[in-house]
Amino acid sequence: MAANLRKYKYEASSHTRPSAAAGRSPENGASQMANPKANMDSTAIKADILASLRRDISTNITQEIKNALADNFASLKRDLQDVKNEINNSTVAILAELDQVKSDVKLVSDGLSVWSDEMVVMQGTVTSLKKEVHELKNKCEDLEGRMSRGNIRIIGVAETQGSSTPEAVSSLLKEVLRLGREVRVDRSYHSLTQRRPGDAPRAIIAKLNSEGDAADILRRARKGKLQYKGNPIAIFPDYTASIAKARAAFTEVRKMLHNKPGIRYGILYPARFRVSHNNTEKEFVDAADAMSYVKENILQSREEGDMRRYSPKHTWFPTQGCGESLNGR
C-alpha cells in the first residue's frame, strides 16, 4: 500500500507541477480544463487507493481475527481433549462397575434359585411338621381327657376349712346322692383360679378311684336338682380347657332345640354335637355348621308345618355334659 501511495504521489507531483506553473497564465489554465484525461486519472487513483485500503484493512482484520481465534481454538481444543479423556476414564470405571453389578446379580440369581429350591423343601417339611404337631396335640388332649375320666367337678359348695379334702368330698357325695356306701376319692382340691371377695365358690375337682363310680355319680346327678347344706350344687365331668371351650360353642344350638318335641340331641366326647330329627341323624364338630343345619332343616320345617311324625325308635342322646360315659367315652 505504501508503495502504491508513493507511486501515486510521484505521478501526481509530476502532473501538478506544470499545471501549477501554468496556473499563472490564462492560456495554460484553459488548456488544463480542456484536458479531461487528468480528471479521469485522479478518479482512478482515488478508487485504486480506496480499494487498496479496503484490501489492507480486510487483510489486517482477518489476520487479527485469525490470531485471536487461533488462541481460543487451541484452548477449546485442549478443553475438549480433557473432557474426552475424562469421559473415557469415566466410561472405563462405569463399565467396570457394570461388570461388578452383573456379577453380583448373577450371584444373587443363583442364590435365589438355591433358596427357592430350599424353600420348596422347607414348605414340605413345615406342612409335615404341622400335621404331626396337630396329631400330637390331639393325642395329648385325648390322653389328658382319658386321664381325667375318673374326675368330677362339683360346683356350688361353700369354701370352708377342709371342704375340699377327699374325706369331705366322699361324705358330700354319699349324702347328696344318697349312696349306700362310701365313695373312694384319691385326691381332691379347689380349682386353681384366683378367688376374690364376693366371688362364687370355686369348683371342687375330685379324682375318684374308680371310673365306674364317676360314671354312676354323673348318671345320678342328671336325675334332678342337688342340694347340700341348703345350697344348690351341680356335678359335671371334668374336661380340659380346650374340650370345655369346644363343647361350650354348641350352647346356642342346644338352647334353640331345648324342649322341642320330636328332636333328640346331645354332645358326645370330646365335642361332637349329634341331633336326630325325622329319622335323620347328623353329627357336627363345628358349631356354625350345626347352627345352619338346625335353622334350615329343623326350625324352618317346623314353622312351615312340614315336620314328619317322630319315630320313637331313635336312640336318646343325653343333653347334659355328663352323659358321655354312657356313650362309650
UniProtKB/TrEMBL annotation:
Keywords associated with the record: Coiled coil
Keyword Ribosomal protein (UniProt): no
UniProt superkingdom: Eukaryota
Signal peptide: none
Recorded coiled-coil stretches: 66-93, 126-153
Region of interest called Disordered, as start-end residue ranges on this chain: 1-38
Name used for this protein in its record: L1 transposable element RRM domain-containing protein
Lineage of source species: Eukaryota, Metazoa, Chordata, Craniata, Vertebrata
